[in-house]
Amino acid sequence: MISEIFQFIPKDKDIWNENLKDIQSLLEVVDDDSTPYASKYKAIETIKSTIIDINNENEDNETLIGILECQLGITYIDTEEESIGFDTLLKGTEKLQEHKNLLIYIKALQNIAVVHINRNDFTNGEECLLVTESLIKENRLKQQQQKDTKPLQSLEIMNYFYQAQVYGLMKNVKLSSGYCLKTLQLQVKLKEQFVYREWCKNALSVGDYYLDQFDFDRSKQCFLASFQVYRQMIADKSESNESSEEEQQETEANIYLFIGKYFLRFLDTQRAISLALNNQDVKVTEELKTMVSQLRFQRTDVEDLFPDLGDLNQVSTHLGYKVDLFKVQNFEQARDIFLKSQHFLNKAKKYYQLDGFVTEYVDLMEMHSDLYKSLLAFEGNPGRQVSIQKKRLELLEPLVKELNPQYYFSALQTIYFRLAEINGEISKIYEIKCSDMREITVYNEFVFKSIQYSKQFLANYNQKGQDKDAAIRDDIQAYIVCKLQLAIMYRNVKGMNKLVHDNLTMALSVFKSVIKDIEDHNQYGDPTRFSTEMNLCKEMIKLLPEKINFLANKI
């Protein structure tokens, strides 16, 4: 881009031409790792001496100096001298206000944006990138007839990339994903050299965004595109392909993980809709209505996000499963989606094993458990419902022994909560048929397990080295739900009078404690929050004492 300077050099200044050619050559050198910036340091000195020579002339060479200062600032930043580079870029761009169409100006402004972003000044970073985006569009219109548009296209790719980054940091997921998608599209369109694994990773990130929007069609295109580029990575035997076997395996596992999550999310969405329509457990909230209205799959009006990668529907043949979605109306249809999700989650588990990938492995096991939960909504037989819930226990219970609480405290908290919930749900199924002591004993086993895991979850808030009240405030929803679950399980114990009496007494104590927790929380938050839980607790506090006294008289 410094080549743009030659048009501004007077014809009688051969020495300047020579200096600039030297600078150009030095900037193209790739130095050894031992002295990574040697050539750039030489370029910096040559640029500085050339600026001095030009300044010594009496003629107006402000544009010439502006270009050199922009290149000097960029080179400073390339050598990790950010502060002086930033100041130099500001001076250089100020001199080029009449020549904003120059590529060196655009690149300089991009570098200024990056420094702003690195300093957490996202607003100024965003403003700079919006300016460069506009300048790039103007230049593109002017360069349509030119053969060499690659420098401008490279700037455009980098601009989209930076915009994706800054909007991500600003928590604007929509804009961040949009610019990330533009980056990916332009890279494959221009056949620009890119890092395969990073492209795949970013495509899955965009797919995640569409998944959160319940746009299953576009999300599918993203993971199919990622899989297509992964196949190119495997096939590419050239020296430019720097991906190791380990990186290829990780990329493959991440794609399988995403596809497993994709089918899980679809089945869970269908579960929520089914429960809502049947008026079970889930309220038909405005959020759910919005979700149903936005649900999109198997559409014909969705544009190809990655037309330059060919027919992505053909890619699915290499996955072993056809990627098609349909409205789930019965157990068999739900099971079809379930098996697809399970297939890809299991393939991901082959890479993300407990030994070496603890966090990823735990996440996978939780996803697998959630998959069974989504299937459960379509199973009407109580016996098979219990079998499905026990599958969830088989996935999660071993983790309690395998995870070190010192290092995986948060993961264990989640698992305790889930295990308490699952055992509680199983007890509800068994409660229907508690007609003799044997059945009551089986029922109580799950009630007591739910109590055990609830107590373990709640006990973790008493860990040394943490502020208990602050920890509860940060996690108030889960804390109240689990404590209420504990009280309900105590209340639901069946059997001999003394056993029931003792557990009802415990239930009463916990219900009272929940009321205090809610009142304490509501002093600082929404006073109407947890109103349903509060009403239940108050009702139990009225009813339980009479029942406790009745049993006490019988003991």
TrEMBL record:
It is found in: Cytoplasm, Cytoskeleton. Keywords: Cytoplasm, Cytoskeleton. One of its GO terms (cellular component) is cytoskeleton. The keyword Glycoprotein does not apply. The keyword Transferase does not apply. Belongs to the KIF-binding protein family. It comes from the Eukaryota. InterPro entries: KBP. It comes from Tieghemostelium lacteum (Slime mold). This is KIF-binding protein.
